Structure formats: C-alpha cells, structure tokens
Amino acid sequence: MLSAKELAALLGPEVPTPEQEAIIEGAPGGTFRVVAGAGSGKTETMAQRVVWLIANSHVNASGVLGLTFTKKAARELSTRIRSHLATLAQAGIGVETDEFVGPTVSTYNAFAAGLYREHATLLGRDPEASVLSEASAWALTRSVVVASSQPELESLGMDPAAVTNAVRRLSQRLAENPVANDAMDRLVAELGALRDLPPGGRGAYADVGKAIDTVERLPLFTALVAEVAEAKRLRGVLEFSDQIALGLELIERFGHIREQLTDTFGAVLLDEYQDTSVAQTTLLSKIFGQHPVMAVGDPHQAIYAWRGASSANLTDFDHAFGPKVISATLSTSWRNGIRVLDAANRVAEPLRKLPGPTAEVLTPRKGADALAPTVLFPATLEEEAAQVASWCAEHLSRSSGSTPSSAAVILRARAHQKVFVDALTREGVPVHVLGIGGLLEDPAIADVVCTLRVLAHPHAETELLRLLSGARWRLGVADLRALAATARWLVGRDEKGSELSEQRADRLTRSLASTDRAGLIDALLFIARAPEGHHQRALYSTPGLSRIADAAATLTSLQGQRFGDVAELVVAIEQDLGLDVELLAHPDRGASRAARNAFMEALSSYLAFADDAGVAGFVQWLDEAERKDNLSPRPEEPRPGCVQVLTIHGAKGLEWDIVALPRLVEGELPGTAKGTSGWLSDGELPYEFRGDSASLPVFSWRGAETLKEVNERRTTFAEAMVDHHVAEERRLMYVAITRAKKHLLLSGSYWAHQKSPRNPSRFLTELSEAGIIGTLPENPFPEERPAREEREQPLWPGDPLGSRREIVERAAGLVRAAQGQLAPTDEPHDQTLRDIGAELRQHSRSPIPIQLPIRISASSLERLLSDPDALRADRARPIPQKPHRAALRGTLFHQFVEDHFDVSLPGPRLEMDGQSDEDDSGLSIEQWREAFLSSQFPLTTPVAVEAELHLPIGEHLVICKIDAVFETPDGVHIVDWKTGRQPSTPEQQQAKAWQLAAYRLAWSQWAGIEPENIQASFWYAETSELVTPPDLPDGEEFARRLQEAMTPGGSRQSG
After folding, report:
1. CB under 8 Å to 437, separation ≥6 — which residues?
2. pLDDT tens-place string over residues 32-58
3. Beta bridge partners of 947
4. What is the DSSP letter of 435?
5. Distance CA 711, CA 210 (A)
6. 661 in Cβ contact with 410 (< 8 Å)
7. Statement: the pTM of the whole predicted model exceeds 0.90
8. Would strands 944-953 and 956-967 be described as parallel, antiparallel, or unpaired?
9. Could you write out the DSSP letters of every residue in 490-534?
10. Cα(905)–Cα(70) distance, rounded to whole angstroms?
11. Mean pLDDT over residues 720-737, rounded?
C-alpha cells in the first residue's frame, strides 16, 4: 500500500505534516470533519487524499465527488487531482488517467442543478427551466411587488425597493428553512399579544411597539413570497435555492436516487463547509449520511452569513452525518510568514472561545520568513492613501525574478476606494478595481448612472451636482450656490415662482412627504425658463445662465425618454454628455470602454426578467447588485505587477505577495452594526425557525410580564447582536490578514470625511498590546480636522480638455481655417483623396484582383454573391466603420432571446448581418421583446441556440452562426432572428436566402440529416412574420455560385 509520504515523494515537493498524513491515510470508509486554518494547504491535502484512495484501489477515479463554492476553486482542485494522477501514471503506478473518466469536481450549486435536471420529470417539472441570476430574481420580485394587489401594501409606507429587498430576504430564508404558515401565524399572534401587557414603568415603550409592527408585516411579505413563487412557475424559471429545495424533495420521495448517488460515489469531499447553508447541508446529509464523507472548513473564515451560510454546520456535522465522525485539523500555514501569523492568531483568539469546533493556532511552515507587518497611522485619509500607495509602489519595485510580485489593497467597504485608487495612480502603479463597485467608479459609467438617478429621483441632489459641475456643463461654486438659493426661494411657490396662499401652502405641505420639497432640479428648470429680467437670474453669471439653460434642455429631453427602453436611454445619455466621443477618441479610455461593455451586459441581465423595466427599477437594482457584488468572492486571479483593489469578501480564497489593509479604524473595521434588531427587521425570519438558531442571539420575549420587561429583554438582545456583529467583523479581519504571502501593511488615519476623529481599530489596539506591532501614534489633531495641504491651487470646475487644451484648440483652428478656404465642389481638395478617388473609379471599371478571405461569414453572403466586386473594393481600401445603432440595438435583442433560452455568450455580439441604420425597423427593443414573447417560439425548447458551424466549400470556410434550431416531426427547423426591415423585392429576398442556404447545408453536414428534412426561415420582429424561402439552393448550386463570386469579374446575378 502506498503511504502518504511515499505519495508525496512522487508528487513533490513538500513532505506532508503529521496532520496531513493522518488525513490523507484516514480510514477509507470513515467520515471526517477537518478544521483547516487559512493557508494550511487544504486543497493539496484533499487532492492527495483522493489520489491516495485511487492509488490504493479504495475507490475508482470516477467514484470521487468533490464539491466547493466557486468555479475557480473547483477548477483548481480538479486540476491538481488530475495532474497528480498523471504523475503517478508516469511513475508506473497503475491509476486511471483517461481524461473522460475521472473525479467529479463541481460547485454545490452545480451539483444541485444536475440532480434537479436529471430527475425533474419525476416531480412534473421542466428539467430545462432557466435559472435566474440574482439580478433577474430581484427584477422579477420587484415586478411582482409593483403589480401586487395586496391591500396592505398601500398603507405600508415603504418604497418598492425596500419591499423588494424584504421579500427577497424572506424568500431566501424560507427556501433555507421551510416554515408552515400556521406556525408563523401563531408566533405573530403571540408577539402581538405583548401589546396588552401592563407598562410596568413610566415609559411608553415605543420601541416595543415598532418591533411588533415589523413582525406583524411577516404575513404580508410571506404572501408576496408566494406570489413570486407563482410568477416563477408561470414563467418556467427557478432560482438556485429552488433547485436545492426540489433536490431535497426528490431525495425524500424517490429512494432510488440516493442509492444511485451513493453507489456512484464511494468518496465525497465537501470543501469550504463553513460556507454551506442549512438547506445545502440538509440535502447533502440526506444523500451521504452514514457514507464516506470528508468535510473541510474553517469557522474563522465563515464570512458569508448574508447569503445563508452558517459556521454552525461544522458544529452540527456529527448530527447530520452520523455518530462516528473523526475530527482532524490542519494548522500549519504554507502561505504566511511568522509575524503575519502572529497577527492572525491574535485577532482570532476570541473566536476560539466561541461554542463549537475551532481552528487551532496556526503555526508557520519550516523556513517561513519573519517579516513584520508595517503599520501606518497618519492624521488624515489623504496622507494614509499617499503612504499606502508609496508602500505598494516601493514593494512592487523590489520584485525579483522573472515574474513581478502580485499586490492587493483590500477594503472593508468601498466608501474611500477612490482616494486610494487616485493615490496609486499618482504613484504610477497599475491599478485594477474588481467588481461592480469598481465598474460604477469608472468616470464614464458614473456619469451615466448619475444621470439615470437624476431622471428617476427628483431629489438626487448629489448626482445632479456631479453632472452640473462636471465636464459637460462646468458650473462654478458661485452659480451652484445661487442654484441652492433659488431652490430655497421656491419653497412655498408654484412652478412660475408665484407665492402660494397660506391655505394652499399649508395644504401642499401636509400632502407631501418630508423630502418632496423644491430642490436643485426645480431651481434648474425655473432659472432656465424665467424671463430675462427676473430677479433670481441676477444671482448667476452670464456663462452660468447659458450652461443652466443647456443642462435643463438636455435633462428635459432625456426625461421624456425615461419611460421608454432603458438601453436606448443609456445610449442617448452617452451621446448628450459626449461620452461616446470621449470613449472612442481618448487613447487612455480602454478600461472605460471595457467598463461600458460590462455595464451594458448588467443592464441586459436586468431587463431580461423585469416586467416594468424602467429607470427607477434599474437604479434600485444597481444599488442592491453593488452591495451583493461587494460581498461575493471574486473569480479573478491575482495579477502580477498590478495592484488589485477589492473588498475583503471578494478576497476570500485568494492570496497576494503584497497586501495592504487600509482604514483600520473604529466604525470601518470593525464597522458599525447597521442594525441590532436581528429578526425584528423587515423580511427577517424569526430565529427560532432557522436551522442555525443555536448559533444566533436569543430574544427571550416569551414569559415577560410587562412592557418594561419586554423592552429590557429587547435591549439585551440588541447588545447580543452587537457582539455577534463584532465576531463577524473579527472573522473578516482574520481573512484579510491571511491573504498576505509576504508583505503586509496595516493602516488607518484619525481623520477622513467625518466631523470627529476615529480611533484605531480595536484589532490594531489588540495587536499593539500584544507586542506584535509597535505603539500606535497619538492623534496630533484631537480637536478638529487639519487643513488640507494642496499640491497646487486647484481650478474648479476642472477643464475638460486639461493639459490637451492648447494642442486641441490649435488643431481645431487649423481645421476651421482649412474649411473656410474650400470652394464648393464634389472633388476633394486633398491630392491624396483625389488619387484614392481615381483609383476607386478605375477599380469600378475593371475586375479587382483582391483575394477574398478563406473564412467567410454566412451573414456576408448576401453582399458577396450579389456584388462581389464591391466587397473586393472594400477590402482594397478598408475604411473603419463604427457599429450602426441598429446593430447595437439588435445586439440587445439577441441577448434577450439568448437569456430566455438560458444561453449566454462570452462577449457582445456586434456582427448583426451587416445591418445599417437604414435597415432599422424603427421599433423599440421593448416592442421586439413583446413580439418575440407573443410568437410561437418562447414556449418551445430549441435543440441548439447560437450554434457555430463551419461549412467547407472548396478552399473556403463559411462560418455559420445559427440563432436557433427547433425539432419538427420530419427533421429540424432553423430560425434566424431579424430585427431589421423585411426585404421588399424578390431580388432582395433571394439575396438574403443564401444565408439560410448556408445554414441548412452546415446543419445537414454536422447532424447527418438530409437537407430536404431541414426547414430554414427568417423571423422578422417588425411584423412577427416567419418567412420561409421556397427553394433554397442545394450544395452543388451553392458551391458553383460561391466559386463564381470568388473569381474577379464573376457573375453578379443573384438568382
């Protein structure tokens, strides 16, 4: 039998520790709970455990199942296992190395999805039901909330976004912890009865009443959850949580499924077990209880409680998987140096005192460095950012070897992200901001989002100020101050500025919410429309009045489009703000162009399932998406030579050579608890119904005899929630520290943008008191924030051309001067242009000996076969063409259809059959969607979507990108979606038919179906008409026509 040490000798280079050895050689049929500290080599240990089982014939390679949370982690584990097996095979050890027969390694969600798809028909469900993304689920929920007829909604006093978030939260909790309605109703009634208790003191105890009011909204939210479930059923869609719940139903109702899985997988590995939810652990224990399972986790890294994860699952592992659980640990860090580990261990010390299994104190590997963490704590945020940037630049410059070091700035939250990104940029350090938060920080995207917010919310004052003071309108301080003065003057006046009567003003005041008062947007519109001599206009500068008028006109025009298609509105905003030109013309806007593509993909994801896909819903979704994205692990790998900026939640599972942890101050890390109400919050499930209730604070409301006693117990519960929150923040600090492979910087500052100073984080204080870091400096400015030192006197508003102004103005002047000297003529004045024109005319009179490409797209066949010489002329003198607006709009429609059929493309589709603006049908994208959804296609299941096939014709290859293929009784039906106008003449129709002919021949060759059994059609969104050409050419005719077109001077006949 091959031992763990012998195995390691073959695989190299590290010798396993005794802890690793015990786990690798553990009883083949045993059930293990492994508590593995950060960086303790759990991935390698699990890989070697699998290889040891296979090498010693305890299990076949195909009999191993490994589950983890991210695709990145699954890919890494699978790659290591297969690499190790290949190494053993080369060494003569008889193991399977067939690339198609090996361990199954996937994510928890993918496993549940596969279980559902394979057996869904047993439940009468559609196995191919689309799975909603978080964005789509939020959009669908909001649509249900807005359309709901629940009478209580009118008196709720909550905006749709808040109700949507509450319903989403409760929906996720109920998916994890099913609760009978009568049990929920009983709790609500019991809690409501507390109102009848005697006061027991002098207070009114309003907080008790508010808590009861909140819990009494649970039945309403539960009813909305049921409405959302029905909406998903009618649409034939699911969420990941639904797949888990349905998977559990399958296991409980059909015993043969469990037997099939346990027979297939003789060894099961459960990675990152502390991040599993109650529903996931219930499903897995129902399948693999009393079965060889090894669960690996670290309670100190349980940082995803917001998505239902619970470290209590490690505590309950014995109960879930059987009484004979073997506990093991991994406590040698293969990642961190000695002093970094000292800091991590000290931060985690209080966590080891909590109930349940705990990670051992991490010990360094042999030969670990002893580099001490660097600590910086200047007076101000600006100083901190500059020092952090300088530290990162210095350590990156020290990189030795062929591969530069990797680096990260890891933040608890993104509030001060821009300050650090700007400081890094000034140091000349390459920066990459990860996540939606980074996307929305991009200047071009920020301006678009600000405009959307202004259009959606009349009191988006901060966003309006950004626009007015930005490059487009450049209002100065005096004009902005005047605008605020006008807003104040307008209070109590109508839109014309006339003072309201006292009675009307009082009635208006009582009818409006506290925020519905005249604001900056009202002032902007008033000044733009006020007559020349109005006294309010005297407050403004002459340029300011001109710019205000332009801003008001632009925003008014955009406001008129807010109820149309959001994607079209975004394009209009880009054009009106000049962002489209900026992105195309600026040589350093590559990142912004990538951000713009990502933003449009996010918008497309939202629009796919939003019934009321308007501006307000989208900007509300953006807020929620940014929050969720900041709390999710990132799939990106560390990038050598670059500083990646991300949140702690995003950094989980990653490591860098150089790590900076800024903003270690009280109120930021640990952050202030946003709420201490626990389950006394909208949309929260009472803790007693949760499977992890034993690990949560308890509100002992039952048995109280007075309102005063209830309030005291509520206060005790709130204090326990604060302690619970601090423990979660401590886990975040532990995760952040253990990301550093070599260099670690801990920083903070007393003053940021708040009115009072913030003290160093208690985590820093603990490290200082333990002697791990030095004494923290005293605040040199304890009373007030020091004045900012400016490098140079700033100009505000800034010049949009910046340092380029002189050269751009000189170039523009030369162009204007040259234009003024041109005489009216059809002939270009420039000799080069005249030469090109003559050359093109010569080419038009003779065959063009320009070789056409080997690869030809099917969408270009129409032009190739009807006018091949024109196509050669384009190749002879190629002129760059920007994507037509019609093609860009068509891209969004295709993405919608792909999302409907649960297919996604790796990038934007811009090759829309050469569609030009003249081809545009004029319909909106929303009208296209409505046409598609009312057609015969949405309820059918295609056998292929966006299939790329290659059709060899002679020396050429026709690239066919087929939109959709449906089965028919006689064969298949190919359908190509067309968002442009339908051809009007027989000649145009025949020319377009060549594309379908290529598709039919390609599918015939690929699927082995006779062309006669393949129908091919265009579906035109403008008319909802399916057009099927009667006679498509066969393979011989197609090859002949293509050969003629390839020959200079060949036939131009299209028939």
Report:
1. 414, 417, 626, 629, 630, 647
2. 999 999 999 999 999 999 999 999 999
3. 962
4. S
5. 11
6. yes
7. no
8. antiparallel
9. HTTB-TT-PBPPHHHHHHHHHHS-TT-S--HHHHHHHHHHS-TT-
10. 20
11. 96
